[in-house]
Amino acid sequence: MTLITNVSLRRVLDSRGNPTVEADVLTESGGFGRAAAPSGASTGEYEAIELEPSEAIAAAREHALPRLVGEVYAGNQREVDAALHAADGTDDFSAIGANSAVAISMAAAKAGADVLGAPLYQHLGGTFRGESFPTPLGNVVGGGEHAKEATHIQEFLAAPVGAPSVSEAVFANAAVHARISEILDDRGVPAAKGDEGAWAPPISDAEAFEVVDEAVADTADELGFEIGFGLDMAAAELYDADEGGYVYGDEVKSTAEQVDYVAEMVDEYDLVYVEDPLDEDDYEGFADLTDRVGDRTLICGDDLFVTNVERLQDGIDADAGNSILIKPNQIGTLSDAFDAIELATENGYETVISHRSGETEDTTIAHLAVATDAGFIKTGTVQGERTAKLNELIRIADDAV
Ligand SMILES: C=C(OP(=O)(O)O)C(=O)O
Ligand SMILES: [Mg+2]
């Protein structure tokens, strides 16, 4: 039986050293699931609300636990997530906190899988899920909100699209990361690391394009399969309406200049992926850029869509972007994330399952990506809280074939 018999909530550390919410879910027959909420730094304006962890825990204990314990089956994810929504009563989880909600939602899924004796990806995706595995997008150079005094563009992402297996793709990204260190060394550039473990060198975006391009080409030559690269521009963080556009240090680009710039970079570097190239309110700019380069690259909405079906539907109606980033904590439950994935897939949008810049050892997103046949997963390259997911992907691939 998967009836939930206990939910414990506690504060644990995330990778930035901040507190976050961890949930344990127990079931009648001894099923157990544990999960923790991640946390963003370049958060979208339209995300579900993360409360201060102690407040989120207190609110969830008061409002959510009575609707879950002895009431709901952990194996019925829709029922668990409906109970969380009912307990919250708002449309953005501002009452119990999206951090409490997502931790409980994911922990319940794991408890449901535990009772079945099935791996989480199989519980979520079913026995007849597809055979494919996601390509990992590996953050190798970054700045923006994730590292001070580094690039304006938040993430330069290795994309081993030609890798014959998940394992080879994961190791390819690590090899690109290592090659970048050598190239920066040769150029005499010192580099610390940003929040996600990417190199955070004090170089211009133009130089970062050169460095990543060289590292990707060298690694592809060495490994013998195609490795491209992509970007998360996190442009909502660059956009300043008072300044009249996108602020790159002393330079400000208008929206039209930003679209031109991104389109030029797509062609110059054969970019396979560009996330958030424009502000989170600019559906029109996304549509314009998608019209120009969407036949040869993915234009992905993160802050634009925030894993929200209504915002995604607006994007579909406007032909804005051709892919969506899926972050369960942006919307609060796994059921809501599944709804966004389903709507995206029905409309030909590629799905990219993603970590946050503040993470824990939790591996749920690796299972979510496999369960839903996502084309990509973005979960860093090196550093423990990132390798937790990448190593889990390798284990899943090992187990599933
Ligand atoms: C992972 C990201 O960063 P954050 O978690 O800070 O939003 C992102 O913007 O895609
Ligand atoms: Mg992003």
Describe the structure.
With 401 residues, the chain is an alpha/beta fold. It has two domains: 4-117, Enolase-like, domain 1 (2-Layer Sandwich); 135-400, Alpha-Beta Barrel (TIM Barrel). It has helices spanning 53-63, 65-68, 77-88, 98-116, 120-125, 166-186, 205-223, 235-238, 255-269, 283-293, 309-318, 328-331, 334-346, 364-371, 384-400, and strands spanning 4-13, 19-27, 32-36, 135-142, 155-159, 192-193, 199-200, 228-232, 239-240, 245-248, 251-253, 273-275, 298-301, 323-326, 350-354, 376-378. It has an eight-stranded mixed barrel with strand order 4-5-8-12-13-14-15-16, surrounded by six helices. Helix 11 (309-318) runs parallel beside helix 13. It is globular, with a radius of gyration of 20 Å. The two termini are 29 Å apart. The model has no long low-confidence stretch (mean pLDDT 97). Magnesium ion binds next to loops. It catalyses: (2R)-2-phosphoglycerate = phosphoenolpyruvate + H2O. Catalyzes the reversible conversion of 2-phosphoglycerate (2-PG) into phosphoenolpyruvate (PEP). It is essential for the degradation of carbohydrates via glycolysis. Pathway: Carbohydrate degradation; glycolysis; pyruvate from D-glyceraldehyde 3-phosphate: step 4/5.
